[in-house]
Backbone:
């Protein structure tokens, strides 16, 4: 429920942006006894984790659409279940291959192997070893998620101490670090080719490398993005699950905890400027002229937007401006939210049901449409040369199979997320091309689920410029910037300021532009709050 007014204009900390990381940061600071305000541009908090109407009686997770990365620590620290968070299961992932054929990808090793074995006995046999290898690598990165990146260029005692402490805490990684280096530099295809021989099986895993990124499975460094998507520690199909009431219930629960602990949440408060004096933050000014002062300001906006749009450039080093201008945020993701009479009736549904592989589910709530590696690469090729995909890859999910709160009885909501649809079209304009791209999407859906268009009541298509305009994701990028080696850890978002701090005293960045990157995890917000509290102890000791 939104707030629109504030009882005060002076705080210990002001958070710019009421997305999930901003709320997480605010809640940790409030729990530490700070007086905190969250200023949100829109009429509701939530950022990209919101549930809103798409048609009469239909509500949908408009941007983010499945829960995986929200860390159990965040859930437990703020008792989010008490505040309304309820996680629902989704089915095993199914990838249709045309006609009645499909591949099943499950948490259950035997089920996945049985599905893979239909295409390659060798790939089925080696899959357990691959899964152990990938999870071993993911466990390494999971430990690093909570670390504050050090600046290896500094030559002072504090940096030496922090670096030594980081190395000691993670000393057991040893030569396993080579696995991370491989994944950060290799393409998904090259990495998977070392394990598997069948392109259809490789596509099941390589699919994750294309989600939200301007890359194909054969792009160098795309292997790392696979791991980013499997790092969630929630129990479910590959760590994925639905949130009852949609993804907005996550941020509603975070906001509820915040209000209970004294956080002022102020909506309709778009920030025009961050005031700086003597290299220290002083206040923020909204576009309607309100002034909110605090010695600490943490921005949940894109770091690029904050540095370039909200701060007078005279307060920033030239090197920071140069690097942030080059920080890559080009997005090719799209989202389509559909209200429908019934979910897609895939050609393989009768066989899927007859095979009995979905357990308690009668319908596959979680799908990937990308039958082989070349399909994924062709979708990227179209975008690489400045146009939208003729045959886009996509993830259809149907939460209303398990959640009866989002649609009228007997009706359904289906979310489609995929790519590629570049932020900028070469020799074209989205105002003129959006309807044609929607036709491309439906054409691909109907390749596997004939006649689905006849069941559609309303279809809301959002391409990258829409996503940027609506919720401020830079160029529509779901991670606030590419997950590439030069934009990770101590170089995210700019070298020298990857520790959630900025060149300006009291100004921090707490959103997905920072380590460990995007996804609804809450970890950047947690880590930023920790560094803010560390600095305050230092300032006032």
Residues:
């Amino acid at each position: 429920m939104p707030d629109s007014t504030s009882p005060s204009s002076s705080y210990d900390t002001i958070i710019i942006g009421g997305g999930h990381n901003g709320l997480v940061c605010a809640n940790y600071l409030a729990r530490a006894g700070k007086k905190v305000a969250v200023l949100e541009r829109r009429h509701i908090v939530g950022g990209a984790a919101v549930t809103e109407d798409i048609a009469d009686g239909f509500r949908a997770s408009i941007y983010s659409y499945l829960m995986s990365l929200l860390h159990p620590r965040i859930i437990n620290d703020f008792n989010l279940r008490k505040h309304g968070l309820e996680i629902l299961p989704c089915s095993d992932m199914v990838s249709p291959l045309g006609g009645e054929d499909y591949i099943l990808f499950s948490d259950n090793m035997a089920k996945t192997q049985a599905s893979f074995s239909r295409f390659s006995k060798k790939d089925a046999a080696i899959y357990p070893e691959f899964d152990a290898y990938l999870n071993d690598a993911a466990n390494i990165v999971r430990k690093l998620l909570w670390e504050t990146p050090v600046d290896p260029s500094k030559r002072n005692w504090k940096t030496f101490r922090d670096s030594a402490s980081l190395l000691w805490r993670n000393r057991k990684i040893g030569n396993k670090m080579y696995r991370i280096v491989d994944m950060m530099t290799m393409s998904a295809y090259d990495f998977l080719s070392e394990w598997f021989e069948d392109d259809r099986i490789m596509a099941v895993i390589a699919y994750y490398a294309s989600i939200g990124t301007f890359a194909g499975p054969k792009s160098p460094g795309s292997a790392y993005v696979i791991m980013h998507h499997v790092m969630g520690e929630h129990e479910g199909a590959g760590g994925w699950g639905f949130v009852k009431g949609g993804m907005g219930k996550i941020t509603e629960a975070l906001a509820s905890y915040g209000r209970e602990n004294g956080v002022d949440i102020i909506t309709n408060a778009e920030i025009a400027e961050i005031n700086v004096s003597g290299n220290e933050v002083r206040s923020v000014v909204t576009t309607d002229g309100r002034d909110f002062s605090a010695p600490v300001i943490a921005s949940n906006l894109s770091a690029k937007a904050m540095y370039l749009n909200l701060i007078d450039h005279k307060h920033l080093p030239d090197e920071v401006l140069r690097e942030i201008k080059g920080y890559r945020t080009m997005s090719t993701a799209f989202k389509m939210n559909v209200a429908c009479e019934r979910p897609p009736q895939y050609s393989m549904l009768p066989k899927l049901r007859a095979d009995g592989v979905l357990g308690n589910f009668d319908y596959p709530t979680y799908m990937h449409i990308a039958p082989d590696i070349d399909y994924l690469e062709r979708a990227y090729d179209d975008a690489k040369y400045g146009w939208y995909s003729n045959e886009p890859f996509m993830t259809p999910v149907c939460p209303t199979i398990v959640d009866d709160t989002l649609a009228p009885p007997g009706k359904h909501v289906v979310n489609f997320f995929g790519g590629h649809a570049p932020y900028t079209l070469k020799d074209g304009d989205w105002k003129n091309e959006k309807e044609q791209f929607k036709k491309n999407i439906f054409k691909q859906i109907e390749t596997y689920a004939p006649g689905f268009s006849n069941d559609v009541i309303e279809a809301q298509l959002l391409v990258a410029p829409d996503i940027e305009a609506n919720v401020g994701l830079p160029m529509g990028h779901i991670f606030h910037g590419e997950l590439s080696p030069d934009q990770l850890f101590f170089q995210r978002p700019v070298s020298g300021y990857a520790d959630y701090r900025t060149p300006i005293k009291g100004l921090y960045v707490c959103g997905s532009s920072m380590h460990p990157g995007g996804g609804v995890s809450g970890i950047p917000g947690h880590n930023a709050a920790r560094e803010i509290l560390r600095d305050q102890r230092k300032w006032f000791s």
Notes: Residues 133 and 179 are 9 Å apart (CA to CA). The chain has three domains: 13-85+247-327+482-540, 103-229, 329-471. The first helix runs from residue 20 to 31. The chain has a mean pLDDT of 90.
